[in-house]
Write a structure and sequence with these properties.
The chain is α+β, with helices and mostly antiparallel strands. The protein contains 2 helices and 3 strands, in the order ααβββ. A 3-stranded antiparallel beta sheet has the order 1-2-3, with no helix packed on it.
Length: 79
């Protein structure tokens, strides 16, 4: 289910004309987030990173997501 959610999020983000989106497969080497943001920026050439997880509670799926500004290593948004 996690891969399906990642693919859907990438499809949605790729429709935004002001950002370039790379495949979620490119980031698999960095999963789980044991690498630093600086290492991910160097390896992926990214300026922003979306990370997250999901869990099921009863009949619902709960998403926990973070949006990182990689160069400054600032967590810009979290849910």
């Amino acid at each position: 289910m996690g891969d399906a959610l990642a693919q859907e999020l990438l499809r949605i983000l790729s429709r935004v004309e002001v950002i370039d989106v790379i495949s979620h497969l490119s980031s698999r080497a960095y999963r789980p987030m044991s690498s630093t943001l600086a290492e991910m920026r160097e390896g992926l050439g990214c300026d922003y990173l979306v990370s997250g997880s999901y869990r099921t509670t009863g009949g619902s799926v709960v998403l926990d997501m973070d949006f990182h500004d990689v160069p400054s290593e600032v967590l810009s948004w979290s849910s």
